[in-house]
Specification:
The chain is an alpha/beta fold and about 425 residues long. It has a single domain (about 40-425), classed as Pectate Lyase C-like. It has 8 helices and 32 strands. The strands form 6 sheets. It has a 10-stranded parallel β-sheet with strand order 1-2-5-8-13-18-21-24-27-30, with helices on one face. Strands 3-6-9-14-19-22-25-28-31-32 form a 10-stranded mixed β-sheet. It is globular and about 55 Å long. The two termini are about 30 Å apart. It binds calcium ion. Calcium ion binds near residues 211, 250, 254 and 277.
Length: about 425
C-alpha cells in the first residue's frame, strides 16, 4: 500500500503519470482538430481514420512498409511504424550502400574528371559518366522513393527516447488528398548520386534528389510531431567539388506544384541546409491561390536557410522557435519570394553574435511581409522595419500588407511561452 500511495503522489506532481512500460496512447485514428490551420479548411483532414481492420498495419521493415503503402492507393489505411526502418535495403532487408546502386561503370572519381568545368566547360553533363550516374540514381530512387496515397495515416510508435525512425526514405505525396504523418523521426534522405549543374547560380552547383517529405499537388495534409534531419550524414562534413559544397540532401519538407491546405505543427527541423521550400519556381503561376500552409509550434535548429522560403502561398507562421547554435552555418530563416504572403506572428529567434536580426529575413522578388510579436534573443524586434533599413543590394523594401489575415488557427501564445513549450514538446516521441 505504501508503494501504491507513493506512485499516486508522484503522479499528482505530474512527474511520472505513466508506468515505465505502458503503451503510449493510440494516436492512429486521431484527426486534425477543427480550426487547426489551413489543413482544417474545406472538410478538414482525417487521413486513414476510417480504415477497416484489414487496412491497419504495423510495419517493422521496408518490405512491410511498401506492402502497407499499397503503391500509393487511395484506400483508407493506417500504417504504424515500429522501431527503425531503413529504406536503403533490399527485399530481404539487407543494407544497400552507394556502391550497391552504382552501375554501368559510374564512379565519382571518373564523374569529376569528366565534368571538371576547367576542361568540360559549362555545358550540361552528357556522355557515359552522366548516363551511368542517371542509371545508378534510378536504382536508388527505386528503393528510397515511397509513394503515399490519399486517405492515409502514417504514425510512428514510441515515445520519448524511442520514437520510430524511417531513415533514407523520401515520402512522396503526389496528388494525394487527406494524409496525416505523425510521431515519426525521418532522417537522412541521402542521395548517392548528386548531379553537377554548371549553370545554377553563376558558379554552378550540385543538385541532390531527395526531400524527406515532398508534397506535389497534395491537399489536406497534416504533418505533426515529426523530426526531420540529416542525422547520420551531416552535410557540413561533405567535401567541396568544383568549388561548391557536395550536399547530399535536398529539402526536409518541400511543398510544391499547387499543393494546398497544409498544417505542419509541433515538428522539429534540425541540422540541415535547405529546410522547407513552399513553391519551387517563380514561373509556376498555377501555384497562385494555392500553397496555403500553416506552420505552428515547430522548431528550426541548426538550419542554414529556407525556414521556410515561400512563393505564391498564404503562409501563417506562428509560435515557432528558431535556434542557431554557436558555430553553425546560417544564411537566413524567412525567404520572401514571388507573390508570397507570409503572415508571421509571435516567433522566437535565438542566435549567436554573428547572426543579426537583419539576417533573418531575405526577400527575392517578394513585396510584403506581415510580422508581429517577434522575439530576437529575448527582445522584441520589428523584422519588417529592420529588413527595410538594412536590406542588401537587389532586395527591395517590403510592405506590411500581405492581403489576408489568418482565421484558421489554435491559440496563439506569446513568443516567450511558445519558445519554451516548443523546446520541450516539438518532434517525434513527444505527443502528449
Ligand atoms: Ca526538393
Amino acid at each position: 500500500m505504501r508503494a501504491r500511495h507513493l506512485a499516486v503522489a508522484v503522479c499528482l506532481l505530474g512527474l511520472l503519470c505513466v508506468p515505465a512500460h505502458a503503451e503510449t496512447r493510440d494516436i492512429s485514428r486521431d484527426t486534425l482538430p477543427a480550426n487547426d490551420g489551413w489543413a482544417a479548411a474545406a472538410g478538414g483532414t482525417t487521413g486513414g481514420a476510417t480504415a477497416d481492420d484489414a487496412h491497419v498495419h504495423t510495419v517493422t521493415d521496408r518490405a512491410g512498409l511498401v506492402r502497407a503503402l499499397d503503391g500509393g492507393s487511395d484506400t483508407p489505411k493506417i500504417i504504424k511504424i515500429a522501431g527503425t526502418i531503413d529504406a536503403n535495403t533490399d527485399d530481404d532487408g539487407n543494407r544497400l550502400d552507394c556502391t550497391d546502386y552504382a552501375t554501368d561503370g559510374y564512379s565519382l572519381k571518373k564523374y569529376l574528371a569528366a565534368y571538371d568545368p576547367r576542361t568540360w566547360g559549362s555545358a550540361k553533363p552528357s556522355g557515359p559518366q552522366e548516363e551511368a550516374r542517371q542509371a545508378s540514381a534510378a536504382r536508388q530512387a527505386d528503393r528510397v522513393e515511397l509513394a503515399v496515397g490519399s486517405n492515409t495515416t502514417i504514425v510512428g510508435l514510441g515515445g520519448p527516447g524511442n520514437a520510430a525512425v524511417l531513415k533514407g526514405a523520401s515520402l512522396q505525396l503526389k496528388d494525394a488528398d487527406n494524409v496525416i504523418v505523425r510521431n515519426l523521426d525521418l532522417r537522412d534522405a541521402y542521395d548517392c548520386f548528386p548531379v553537377w549543374q554548371p549553370n545554377t547560380g553563376g558558379l554552378g552547383d550540385w543538385k541532390t534528389a531527395y526531400d524527406n517529405i515532398w508534397l506535389r499537388g497534395a491537399t489536406h495534409i497534416w504533418i505533426d510531431h515529426v523530426t526531420l534531419s540529416d542525422k547520420g550524414h551531416p552535410d557540413d562534413r561533405e567535401p567541396t567539388y568544383f568549388g561548391r559544397n557536395y550536399l547530399r540532401h535536398d529539402g526536409l519538407l518541400d511543398i510544391t506544384n499547387a499543393s494546398d491546405l497544409v498544417t505542419v505543427s509541433w515538428s522539429r527541423f534540425a541540422g540541415h541546409d535547405k529546410a522547407m521550400l513552399i513553391g519551387n519556381s517563380d514561373s509556376a503561376t498555377s501555384d497562385r491561390g494555392k500553397l496555403r500552409v500553416t506552420l505552428h509550434h515547430n522548431e528550426f535548429t541548426s538550419v542554414v536557410q529556407r525556414a521556410p522560403r515561400v512563393r505564391f502561398g498564404q503562409v501563417h507562421l506562428y509560435n515557432n522557435r528558431y535556434a542557431v547554435p554557436d558555430g553553425t552555418p546560417f544564411r537566413y530563416s524567412l525567404g520572401v519570394g514571388t507573390e508570397s504572403a507570409l503572415y508571421a506572428e509571435n516567433n522566437a529567434f535565438t542566435t549567436p553574435g554573428h547572426v543579426e536580426a537583419a539576417d533573418l529575413v531575405k526577400s527575392w522578388n517578394g513585396t510584403a511581409l506581415h510580422q508581429s510579436g517577434t522575439l530576437f534573443n529575448g527582445y522584441p524586434v520589428d523584422l519588417l522595419a529592420i529588413h527595410n533599413a538594412y536590406n542588401s543590394a537587389g532586395e527591395r523594401d517590403l510592405t506590411a500588407d500581405v492581403g489576408w489575415r489568418p482565421t484558421l488557427h489554435t491559440k496563439i501564445d506569446s513568443a516567450v511561452r511558445a519558445d519554451r513549450e516548443v523546446a520541450r514538446g516539438a518532434g517525434a516521441g513527444r505527443i502528449p
